[in-house]
Amino acid sequence: DAGVIQSPRHEVTEMGQEVTLRCKPISGHNSLFWYRQTMMRGLELLIYFNNNVPIDDSGMPEDRFSAKMPNASFSTLKIQPSEPRDSAVYFCASSLPQGHDNEQFFGPGTRLTVL
Amino acid sequence: AQSVTQLGSHVSVSEGALVLLRCNYSSSVPPYLFWYVQYPNQGLQLLLKYTSAATLVKGINGFEAEFKKSETSFHLTKPSAHMSDAAEYFCAVSPQGRNQFYFGTGTSLTVIP
User: Fold this and answer.
1) A110 membership: H or E segment, kind and range
2) Chain A residues with CB-CB distance to B40 below 8 A
């Protein structure tokens, strides 16, 4: 299996621009999680989906952030407009349906720099 | 409510010495417990997991952890530290029957030559 795939791996953009991060979960996994990691705040859960439906988006910082999962094999995290404080590493993770052990499989992350 | 506490945000050990990283959890239902490792500029990788089977769990790279229900702990150990063990370690709890995940704040391990 290819594992969780994220793109791009690195993104550098200017303040005010729209940024779209992409994630392909492991085939057969029906839960998908978006995390943000910074030195100051550590690892934060932004949102998670179950069967393509957003279940908990309480971690999304503000309205500038939005996430979608149009199908079981693709999800996006969009920031519009981006700000320098959004600079972080964004991770996507996926897991098997409930009834398994809930292990999350992480992608390699997208390092976002907003200038 | 579920939560994870990792005591010590930074731990330093000498090469060859015992590694002990502490994790305590709280969970209203029987939990699954995990340790993940993150090497610099990489994603999180599973070290080991407790899923209600044996309380002593062995993982990759010589690490192991013991689930102690009475102490609500899941400490990570390795008998002899190697330079390559230098990384960030995260403990996580996930209640059985739910797919929520709660991470600790992480412990940065430094190995001194």
Assistant:
1) strand A110-114
2) none
* Whole-number pLDDT of residue A99: 66
- Are B31 and B52 contacting, i.e. CB atoms less than 8 angstroms apart? no
Q: Which of A102, A106, A108 sits opposite B99 (nearest CB)?
A: A102
Would you tell me how many other CB atoms lie within 10 Å of the CB of residue A26? 18
User: In the prediction, which pLDDT does A1 show?
Assistant: 64
| Contact call for residues A48 and A59 (beta carbons, < 8 A) | no
Residue B14 contacts A where some CB pair is shorter than 8 Å: no
- Per-residue model confidence as pLDDT tens digits over B44-79: 999 999 987 788 999 999 999 999 989 999 999 999
Residue pair A36/A44 in contact by the 8 Å Cβ criterion: yes
Cα angle at B105 between B103 and B109, to 5 degrees?
A: 115
Asked if A102 lies within 8 A of B101 by C-beta distance, the reply is yes
Which two three-digit tokens encode residue A94?
Answer: 């996926």
Structure tokens at B28: 């209203």
State whether B90 and A43 contact (CB < 8 Å).
yes
CA distance A17 to chain B (A): 25
In this structure, are residues A95 and B99 in contact, taking their beta carbons and an 8 Å threshold? yes
Residues of B in contact with A108 (CB under 8 A): 42-43
Inter-chain touch B106–A43, beta carbons under 8 Å: yes
Per-residue pLDDT tens digits for A63-108: 999 999 999 999 999 999 999 999 999 999 999 887 677 899 999 9
